[in-house]
């Protein structure tokens, strides 16, 4: 494939000046500039790399791959550390298992990494966990408990910037159908029982892989009628009067007209930037990209 680091579809489609706002009074989202391939040859490779999360100090990058050799299992979380302007050789993290370990997300303070796994000891399917970040690497893995996890699948945990809410997706009963977005409030050192994200954001389609933006309420998430059979796009939704609208699909240049785009995550080292995964003219299968954004207006 071509070795390129920028997406220039259709002249960047008028500089990607689409202002997405799904409800009156909601902030408008726009993309600033072009999406850039992240660390080609080190992080973005010929294998499938998904859901990049960057530590608040900008020195550590985590992501997962479902087919990169050298890990403990088929799905593994990988890490690269930055020295100066260069990202170092990637290596699997110490808390991988022989099962599925995926969807890492740093907390805003950098103290924890939240992630998914089907390792033994869960409640069924893929469950949500966290692991402490230590001076030497990582501490003991903690299951997030029955208020968050269920006998169904839970994916893509993301703690809000203020640490008060855990955003994730699940196909458990109680949603609108298929994968839906859920939120759980912090309760002491754990979380209260999760509930569907309020409003019209959950539909009969698959909604998953969500991230808060810097304001702590606006979200970017992935949607497909059937994520196993249909193209996946990134969607923007804002909170107005306590509820989210159905969302608006992001423009081309972030999304792709033919290929999947998913796994968005706020960059904690630069909160005006998001990361995402795309299957397009990069270096391999699913590659990792970063793009700057702007939120304007709105009033909650």
Automatic annotation (TrEMBL):
Gene3D superfamilies: TolB, C-terminal domain
Top-rank taxon, per record: Bacteria
InterPro entries the record matches: 6-blade_b-propeller_TolB-like, WD40
UniProt cross-references to Pfam families, sorted A to Z: PD40
The protein's name: Translocation protein TolB
Source organism: Terricaulis silvestris
Top-level taxonomy: Bacteria, Pseudomonadati, Pseudomonadota, Alphaproteobacteria, Caulobacterales
